[in-house]
Amino acid sequence: MTSETVIAPSLSTAQDDGTFTYDKVKSTAKERKHLNLKNPSDANEIKSKIWNYYSLSELIQYLGQKENDEFKYKRITLQFPDNLICDSATIVHELQRELNIVPQANQDTGESNTAQRVWILADTSYSACCVDEVAAEHVRSDLVVHFGDACLNEIDKLQAVFVLGKPTLDIDAIVKQIRSAYSTEQKVVLMSDAPHTYLLPEIAKQLPDYEIIVADLPKTSRAKIIGYTPPPTGHKKFNRVFNTDTVEFGEYELFHITSPESPRLLQLTTNFASVTTYDPISGTVSTGPFPNLMRRYKYVHQARMAGTVGILVNTLSLANTKVLLNTIKEKIKEAGKKHYIFVVGKPNVAKLANFESVDIWCILGCDHQGIIIDQINEYYKPIVTPYELLLGLSDELSWTGKWVVDYKSVLEEYGNEVIQQNEDPDTDEDLPPVFDPVTGRYVSTSKPLRQINHLMVTSSEQGGVDDHDNQLVKRFSNAVAIKGTVSTSAIHLQNRHWTGLGSDYTEDENAAGALVEDGRKGIARGYDI
């Protein structure tokens, strides 16, 4: 042993901060265009703008209500759309500070039944404009505070509060656009999304020489609008209240601030003489192109020939949803068609493509954003509304061009419609032929619930098959008849080129199979043949 110091060998090369360059997360400032911030990095300015924009003083006063010395609302959920979620943390902090809410872990400890708690809801189950009762029920919420634009449709169960916000507008620029678009002889209706509605009376005051009707917000029975007082009376239409008794909307031009979603836009274009939309951000106007109504007429004819209807439930919070759902089911059965009910959350092309046996979809959703308007043929099967399905199920198709989407009006249409159906169709002449409106081919499966009697086919489950029956009829009965009705899914499966493993096996093939032989062995770098 020597007295020299033993130095351990280096196991790796020397490394310092200059050896590698690490990717660091860059902090990005959140865009809050709705607040019109002068200095986006000033926290005090952001807080002040949020207080004014969302009317937090009135909201805090409403949430602080008490009954019998206890808070009226103890489990509060705050629902934000994607464009306002950036303000959620600040709003929750201010509510906790003003209402003396102690932050807790996201679990029920059962320690306090009198304290208030707040949850943030994002990524809504269905349309962002609707109250998300599904997510609120997960925490047994007493009250849902809905922030941002809202459809203001009547909700089913929960108590709700709408905080629309107070965005700003360049009123002089809007007045200039209206004067350049319309003459003083034309009748104009002013409408906007819910947040900008409070500015419409001010715009109308600056146009005294025009005949203008303002579309105001309706008063809802189970919800309060913070920072806004709806008019007590008026003519209600399109989920708006007009300051007149009756309005012939076909005589009016519509000037809409902000561009509505496709379902709402199609509804408006079918009722007004013309529609002009104004973009508050760019300051430009648009007169089209808008969703085409003629394509909806084509879908009505396709609903007429469909044998299987998929009822797509795209909302669970709107009032009369269950009533309309049960009514649609009864009408489909009366028409001799089959139906399936689907709840898939937010529908998309991939989800609906999994159900190939469905011939057409009937969607139950909000008339603002919850109805799918497929303008580019993105979906594999047509998607219709309950009103369009009613037209397709009617014996005589008569459409005036109106597009009805609100539940109450649709239920009235269903109540007035009487579907004539034959009791016992015995021959081919009892049922009128149905043809594909696109290809012109005869469709034999448009009424599968009646088809088994119509074809005089008896399934193997029912027994009583005559030995002298045609073998093709027997095979048809055994393959597609289930409990006395034609199975549209079985027919669809038979028409496929590939129906599963073993489906291509025939009796002529060798039942013994092939001989087992040695295959390749080794590793991927090199196999031994």
Automatic annotation (TrEMBL):
Protein name (Swiss-Prot/TrEMBL): 2-(3-amino-3-carboxypropyl)histidine synthase subunit 2
UniProt main location, coarse: cytoplasm
Cellular localisation: Cytoplasm
Domain of life, per lineage: Eukaryota
Pathway the protein takes part in: Protein modification; peptidyl-diphthamide biosynthesis
NCBIfam families on file: diphth2_R, DPH2
Cofactor list: [4Fe-4S] cluster
GO cellular component, one term: cytoplasm
Molecular function GO labels: 2-(3-amino-3-carboxypropyl)histidine synthase activity; iron-sulfur cluster binding; metal ion binding
Heme among keywords: no
Membrane-crossing residue ranges in chain numbering: none
One Pfam family it belongs to: Diphthamide_syn
Entry function: Required for the first step of diphthamide biosynthesis, a post-translational modification of histidine which occurs in elongation factor 2. DPH1 and DPH2 transfer a 3-amino-3-carboxypropyl (ACP) group from S-adenosyl-L-methionine (SAM) to a histidine residue, the reaction is assisted by a reduction system comprising DPH3 and a NADH-dependent reductase, predominantly CBR1. Facilitates the reduction of the catalytic iron-sulfur cluster found in the DPH1 subunit. Required for the first step of diphthamide biosynthesis, a post-translational modification of histidine which occurs in elongation factor 2. DPH1 and DPH2 transfer a 3-amino-3-carboxypropyl (ACP) group from S-adenosyl-L-methionine (SAM) to a histidine residue, the reaction is assisted by a reduction system comprising DPH3 and a NADH-dependent reductase. Facilitates the reduction of the catalytic iron-sulfur cluster found in the DPH1 subunit.
GO biological process: protein histidyl modification to diphthamide
RNA-binding among keywords: no
Family, per entry: Belongs to the DPH1/DPH2 family. DPH2 subfamily.
Keywords in alphabetical order: Cytoplasm, Iron, Iron-sulfur, Metal-binding
Subunit structure: Component of the 2-(3-amino-3-carboxypropyl)histidine synthase complex composed of DPH1, DPH2, DPH3 and a NADH-dependent reductase, predominantly CBR1.
